[in-house]
Amino acid sequence: MTRLRVYDDTRALFHLPDGVIYLDGNSLGALPLGVAERVNRVITTEWGNELIRAWNTAGWYSQPRHVGDRIARLIGAEAGSVMVGDTLSLKVYQALAAALDMNASRKAILSDTGNFPTDLYMAEGLIATLGRGHQLRLVAPEEIEAALSEEIAVLYITEVDYRTGRRHDMAKLTAKAHALGIVTVWDLAHSAGALPVDLAGCGVDFAAGCTYKYINAGPGAPAFLYVSPRHANVARAALSGWMGHAKPFAFELGYAAAGGVERMRVGTPPVLAMAALEASLDIWDRVDIKEVRARSLALGDLLIAEVERRCPSLEVVTPRAHERRGSQVSFAFDGGYAAMQALIARGLIGDFRAPDIMRFGITPLYIGESEIMRAAEIIEEVIAGEVWLRPEYQVVNAVT
Ligand SMILES: *Cc1c(COP(=O)(O)O)cnc(C)c1O
Question: Ligand 1 atom closest to Cα of 212?
């Protein structure tokens, strides 16, 4: 397999509409050209001709584990430790349930106020379902380290903050948590495909992430769950569906968990969505995530410098230190929502997160220096020219 140079070889492997500069791959990655052909092949030859036989003949049944192994490479996970399926909301629920179970005498879950709300909502739902008096403790992201103590059962955080792009130190926090007997659950939503992650090296217990952001597998693409091999045969699968059973096709009346991460499967996998994910991984298999990271940091530095120079009213909220940021650049601006609508109308697609954050995702597989320079020009036109004050940009859509 020949290596692909990031951007120089990979840009042509994506479809992007003419006239669009796409800085929102942190929310929904761009479309790899190989997806349509791959999904079409699965529909016509596998589903169409093989029908039910395809579960065996086309490998549909074992696909969630095989695809998991391809993702494992991107996140520094051991082979056989990643399972694909469901949504990230469900995968963090499963991980948190298993982690709490491993630390049953403790009642506190520690997270931060920068976490993505669904992670927090799923924790609340799990706490109510368990009914054992657990509590969710939220502190500011900078206070996480100091808040680790022997009262905490699980450290439950997202490595890169979806609003600001601030990055936690996974190695340091995991080591400190372990020294205090705390089990760790890391959300990699804004890490997988964005920067090198070393789950095995950091000794992380559980991790989960999605594939429709930086991995480019398409809207609604399945999520993944990592379980450290240390725990894979003992972790309790809270969502004990038939596909995670030791012998699903024995149709036994009682549940018995499969060995290893296989127990984290729930029900029938989304085969068509999985085909799109496989096509996106055909690119990832051939690029070096370290090269992606180096380019992302350089492009992020360029965007920060150009926007600061042209638009002093935009406040950079992303940490400047390379090791403390992910792969997005965010600016705080009071008219952020309207300004983003004006940018989108001019072909620069980023997004807005309440209350005042304008986000720009940096995805070096299909974004290079010329796109960043053009983006800075459009931002200057909208902000310095006060274009965002026009009434048509003040209308708020359902999805921001
Ligand atoms: C994007 C994101 C999610 C989304 O969850 P879904 O179940 O895929 O909708 C969850 N957590 C974090 C941290 C995210 O950034």
Answer: 8
pLDDT of the residue at 1: 81
The amino acid at 263:
R
Indicate whether 396 pLDDT > 90.
no
Respond yes or no: is residue 331 known to be catalytic. Answer: no
**pTM of the predicted structure, to 2 decimals:** 0.97
Domains of the chain and any CATH numbers: 11-32+288-393 (3.90.1150.10), 37-284 (3.40.640.10)
Residue nearest to atom 6 of ligand 1 (CA): 88
Give catalytic status of residue 121 as yes or no: no
Q: Which of 169, 130, 137 is nearest to 153 (CA)?
A: 137
Query: Cα–Cα distance between 355 and 352 in angstroms, integer?
Result: 8
Tokens at 300, concatenated: 């992020």
How far is Cα of residue 378 from the mean position of the Cα atoms in its chain?
Answer: 28
Residue 272: the pLDDT is: 98
Residues with beta carbon inside 6 Å of ligand 1? 87-89, 116, 118-119, 158, 162, 187, 189-190, 210, 223
CA gap 8, 366 in Å, rounded: 9
DSSP for 178-210, please give it: HHTT-EEEEE-TTTTTTS---HHHHT-SEEEE-
Q: Is 213 a catalytic residue?
A: yes
Q: Would you state the pLDDT for residue 78?
A: 98
Return the percentage of the chain with pLDDT > 70, whole number.
100
pLDDT in tens, 278-326: 999 999 999 999 999 999 999 999 999 999 999 999 999 999 999 999 9
Angle at 166 between CA 161 and CA 167, to 5 degrees: 90
**Strand order across the beta sheet in which 108-112 lies:** 82-84, 224-227, 206-209, 183-187, 152-158, 108-112, 135-139
Tokens encoding 73: 């490479």
Tell me what percent of the chain is helix, strand and coil, each rounded to the nearest 5: 45, 15, 40
Helix (H, G, I), strand (E, B) or coil at 24: coil
- List the one residue out of 358, 356, 351 whose CA is nearest residue 397: 351
pLDDT bucket at 90, cuts 50 / 70 / 90: very high
Given a contact cutoff of 8 angstroms between Cβ atoms, the answer to whether 159 and 143 are in contact is no
